[in-house]
Amino acid sequence: MIGINFSFRGQCWLWQSESAAWHFIHLPVDKSEEIKFFNESLTIKKRGWGAVRVQVTIGATNWETSIFPHKESKTYILPIKAGVRKAEDIKAGDEVEVHVKIEL
Q1: Quick count: other Cβ atoms within 10 Å of Cβ 65?
Q2: For every one of its 104 residues, what pLDDT tens digit does the chain have, with 9 covering 90 and above?
Q3: Can you tell me whether residue 50 is helix, strand or coil?
Q4: Using CA atoms, how far apart are residues 75 and 32, in angstroms rounded to an integer?
Q5: What is the pTM of this model?
Q6: Are 28 and 36 in contact (CB under 8 A)?
Q7: Secondary structure of residue 47 in the 3-state scheme
Q8: Are 56 and 100 in contact (CB under 8 A)?
Q9: How far apart are CA 44 and CA 34, in angstroms?
Q10: How far apart are CA 32 and CA 87, in angstroms?
């Protein structure tokens, strides 16, 4: 199956409101532009809020999730769930190696 596969290093950051906190990593600008192109050309199956389904690996942890467009940075952002952060000992501010796979 054809897809987009890439690895990058990114910094985990915390978004917080009064009622919730989420950890994210920004995808690189060039890869975000490539994903946006395929998403807009209908090659990637559309999801709510412009989300794109991905398979992710950090360290020894693999999971499926969605990435979301982030207007302020003009990149996609990858949510890092608590189980992954715990398994890989990731905290806000840590830089980690990420592998992303998107099936087209």
Answers
A1: 17
A2: 578 999 999 999 999 999 999 999 999 999 999 998 887 776 556 567 788 999 999 999 999 999 999 999 999 999 999 999 999 999 999 999 999 999 87
A3: helix
A4: 5
A5: 0.90
A6: no
A7: coil
A8: yes
A9: 11
A10: 26
